[in-house]
Design a protein that fits this description.
The complex is a heterodimer of chains A (359) and B (242). By secondary structure, chain A is of the alpha+beta class. Chain A is built from 13 helices and twelve strands. Among the domains of chain A are: 104 residues, Reverse transcriptase/Diguanylate cyclase domain (Alpha-Beta Plaits), CATH 3.30.70.270; 91 residues, no CATH class. In chain A, the strands form three sheets. A six-stranded antiparallel beta barrel of chain A has the order 7-8-9-10-11-12. Helix content of chain B is 24%, strand content 25%.
Chain lengths: 359, 242
């Protein structure tokens, strides 16, 4: 989960009849975007920004907090409550308590919260009668037991309590972005997702409704859409982003010399799996600084027990990227295993990783 | 009642004024006949064709009707790692390129680049990579909104769950493509079944192409099983006939 700085401005959370709330919110969002372009407004009165980048740039989280406090005071004249935690749900709670959680302290903070923060009265009452007072004790109840007693919505709350889902359903005001855009005078035809969906038809509306349903069921980050961009290897060329996040239109048609040619693996691991390569004498095969292998690969060790014989390999194809800033040296190797499976391996920082399966 | 003496009004052919009603009626012989091809195109479209989703190049010739019938379930059987996922995704390509929506459920780390190489339009693909134990529910949700769903069940589906999904597919007129691996076999008989029996790689200085022996069988028209050799992926990452 991403480390977020949440800014809670009590006075902006209730809309005044004269419409000034929306204008102030927009002004504050613009001011925050000046020092962090990824600042966003979650709902009226609640702003978040990813804090890792700005804190490295400005020299510490305290500096960012001071800047944000000053910005809110300058733009709106109100005092803000600020807090830092992992994930939107905990970040908002931390902001209300004005606490900056150390990295890794989010879990204990979340577990110590009272059940009322989930905002469901019947759940709180029932759990209290069962002797469960905190989110942590609720999270320890098996999901099946929760499902027996409550409905689907409670299961979602249970996922939030366990920390599997970063934000509470209903925490985000989905229409607010559109309202702010209207206020700015940027009128986009259609809704939040137009870029991904191209021209709209009846099928698009049906798909949109289905997507909303899946997202309500599984949480905000379960439904993904893909975007392609430039790169040399399959794992760099595509990203899956949560559906509903802002579109990055980046259709890179550059030639990318050194690109791994098609066909590409049908499974590309988001988190590469560490593996080992051995030669015929069971000695580790290394990729050395001259760009050659230290031996002929004969066995692939997925774990200590799963060893597979290698019948063919191609490569290694060394790849040195960004040598001017933070040199990244990699080498890719295509391997066919004894039963006919083909895999894509990469050597990086002295180890072998499984990055793709041609399955 | 009409009086006896009155004559019933009658259209008289060839009145002195050259006046006739005949051109007003469809049976009139003076009405020009429609061109043959226009008449054919004005007939109501056959339902069977509009209830088909298109299939791409090698599959078109292998499946009766040349497409996937809406409301049908397709099972792709393959040992792990031998091309089952590529085959299931390649069944989506023609529909996706024609503007249909697709969903991919339970495929943990989909190879998006490979899908683009197959020819899919990624703007109309929704991924649910890790449905957290609710894979059947997510498939059911997606079936309401998209035209094709590829699902890789994490474990063997219960008979009742599979039956419910198949009923939903039939009711919604979508197509469900199930990737059935030995540890997670699909419990019901599908409408069309693609089974990979053999897979071998052609190599040069790199992986070039994979030749798959695919057995196509099913119910009804697809009842007679046949075995074919298909190239998937070829040098460009696409599916092709060998």
């Amino acid at each position: 989960m991403e480390r977020l700085l949440a800014i809670w401005v009590e006075e902006l959370s209730r809309e005044k009849p004269d419409g000034s709330t929306l204008r102030d919110s927009l002004a504050l969002l613009d001011a925050l975007c000046v020092f962090c372009p990824f600042a966003e407004i979650v709902r009226l009165g609640l702003y978040v920004l990813p804090v890792r980048g700005p804190s490295r740039f400005f020299g510490g989280e305290e500096k960012v907090i001071a800047m944000a406090t000053d910005t809110v005071r300058d733009v709106t004249g109100y005092d803000a409550h600020l807090g830092i935690a992992d994930g939107l749900f905990c970040a908002e709670l931390a902001a209300r308590e004005q606490r900056v959680l150390a990295p890794g302290a989010t879990t204990s903070f979340r577990r110590a919260q009272s059940l009322e923060v989930l905002g469901r009265k019947d759940l709180t009452t029932t759990c209290r009668r069962l002797g469960l007072y905190t989110l942590g004790s609720f999270a320890d109840v098996p999901a099946a037991r929760v499902g027996e007693r409550f409905n689907q919505h409670a299961l979602e709350l249970h996922r939030v309590a366990r920390g599997d889902v970063a934000e509470l359903d209903g925490q985000r005001d989905l229409r607010l972005a559109q309202r702010l855009r209207d206020l700015r005078g940027e009128r986009e035809p259609g809704s939040e997702q137009l870029g991904f969906f191209g021209q709209r038809g009846a099928g698009d509306d049906r798909a949109l409704a289905a997507a909303h349903r899946v997202r309500r069921r599984l949480g905000a980050d379960a439904l993904l859409v893909a975007s392609l961009h430039g790169g040399r290897v399959p794992e760099d060329r595509a990203t899956l982003v949560p559906w509903g996040s802002p579109l990055v239109e980046n259709r890179d048609r550059a030639p990318w010399p050194g690109q791994i040619r098609s066909p590409s693996p049908a499974t590309t691991f988001l988190h590469p799996v560490a593996v080992q390569l051995r030669d015929a004498n069971d000695a580790p095969v290394l990729f050395d600084a001259r760009g050659v292998l230290s031996g002929e690969p004969a066995t692939l060790l997925l774990t200590h027990y799963a060893r597979r014989a290698i019948i063919w390999h191609a490569g290694p194809w060394p790849l040195v990227e960004r040598w001017w800033s933070r040199g990244r040296r990699r080498a890719h190797l295509q391997v066919v295993l004894a039963l006919g499976e083909a895999v894509l391996l990469v050597a990086e920082s002295g180890r072998w990783w499984l990055v793709g399966l041609y399955d | 009642m009409r009086q006896k003496g009155a004559k019933s009004p009658r259209v008289v052919r060839g009145t002195p004024y050259g006046y006739s009603y005949e051109h007003m009626f469809a049976f009139s012989s003076t009405r020009p006949t429609l061109p043959e091809n226009l008449a054919a195109s004005l007939r109501p479209l056959t339902l069977a064709k509009s209830r088909m989703l298109p299939l791409g190049e090698p599959w078109k010739a292998l499946v009766p009707g040349g497409g996937l019938r809406r409301g049908s379930t397709v099972v792709v059987e393959a040992p792990p790692g031998l091309g089952g996922l590529s085959l299931a995704l390649s069944l989506l390509t023609a529909s996706s390129a024609n503007g249909h929506w697709a969903g991919v459920v339970g495929v943990d780390d989909p190879g998006v680049v490979a899908m683009a190489e197959l020819g899919m339009d990624l703007r109309r693909v929704l991924f649910v990579p890790r449905p957290r134990g609710a894979w059947a529910e997510s498939v059911a949700d997606l079936l309401d909104g998209v035209d094709l769903v590829v699902v890789r069940p994490p474990s063997r589906a219960a008979h009742g769950v599979a039956r419910k999904l198949v009923d939903r597919v039939r009711e919604r007129g979508t197509v469900l493509i199930v990737l059935s691996e030995p540890h997670a076999a699909w419990p019901l008989a599908p409408d069309v079944c693609f089974a990979i029996t053999e897979s071998r790689w052609a190599t040069s200085s790199r992986l070039d192409a994979r030749y798959l022996n695919v057995r196509v069988s099913g119910r009804g028209e697809a009842g007679r099983a046949s075995e074919h050799v298909v190239v998937l992926p070829n040098r460009k990452g696409r599916a092709a006939a060998s």
